[in-house]
Amino acid sequence: MPYQDRTGGVAGAAPAEDAHDLVEFLRDRIAQDRAALGDDLLITGPQYLLGTLHGSTVLVGPGRMYAHLDAIEQLIDRYEAALGWVALAESEGKDSDLHRTAASTYLDVLRLHAQEWAKHPEVPDGVAAS
User: Fold this and answer.
1) What's the CA gap between 85 and 99, in Å, rounded?
2) Nearest Cα residue to 14 out of 83, 80, 88
């Protein structure tokens, strides 16, 4: 069930007041992770064994981490673009429900990604409990 920031169903969902804090938190964590990985690391290796999952070996490497961080940054960009479309629609007196729904969906996904850092001391309210 989608997260709703106000009543009125999914189409009436609006961005949460804490969304700015969440986005800043994610940007900071991404920057820290990129700094920890370094810029001179080869995308292709080395691979690190994390363990096994259902009989399959689970590996993580720099390429996978960079791709993951890139994906979160793209989600942030799409969330912010959806908010821009909401503002544009509202300024023109048009229906913004579709764009609000998109923004709400992107925000849901960002909240899920923020749970990766739920034990971080700067985690915004609501992330660990999501």
Assistant:
1) 6
2) 83
